[in-house]
Request: fold
Amino acid sequence: MANDEVLAAVGPRLRALRQERGTTLAALSESTGISVSTLSRLESGQRKATLELLLPLARAYQVPLDDLVGAPPTGDPRIYARPIKHSSGQTILPLSRQSTGLQAFKHLIPPGPVEAPDPKTHEGYEWLYVISGRLRVVLGEHDLVLPAGEAAEFDTRVPHWFGSAGGEAVEFLSIFGPQGERMHVRARSTRT
Reply:
């Protein structure tokens, strides 16, 4: 199934899930922060399903993101990432199945003109690791450039924005968790 066909099938799936749960568009709007008109257009297929819209819906329904986009059920432990195109041209690949708890993503920013930052806030905590390129991170009053191999973590209630530092392609990983849930790295003891 092509990506456009998968996205087109999201609307009826969202409507069926909402009706199955006995939820109104107004109640869903209140719990997700997505306007009633946007939810209605999503369900009718008139609005493209993006990660920014699907993540709060998956949380509200407490279902994996794969359930919303219709990923085939399988006992296979591999993650078959379904790319999500952001309006900025960025491609986001979900790397985890769950819609609650920690979620992992791979971000691909194509080469192109340098964008003007447009910081946003939301509930949660995020960890980033740059695979290639140079990632510009605007975080509150900080304007940072992270080269390949560098990582950052922050509270997403702080206004933040990511983009290419110099117009070149950038690849980075992100792990996003609910407020208060952070990445825990385990290291072996150096004691003998």
In short: DSSP finds five helices and nine strands in the chain. Helices lie at 3-21, 25-32, 36-44, 51-61, 65-69. The two ends are 54 Å apart (CA to CA).
